[in-house]
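Hey,
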Amino acid sequence: MKATINNHILDNYLAFLETLSPGAKLDIISKLTQSLKLEIKPKENLFDSSFGAWVGNESAEDIIKDIRNSRAFNYFHP
């Protein structure tokens, strides 16, 4: 269903674009290309970023205490 809607929208755009001059079409192509270049972001390498030292001022004991205090147990008793 969504693909049908997108095709319908694209068909309407193309019908409008057919009425434009070649220069106007080239301007649109240029602007679309620039907008795509701005949207393309390099992929973040999550594997490499998962390695490294812990950054923080807390001691190991404080971190363990925070983890234990944040635990929530939800037992289901029928």
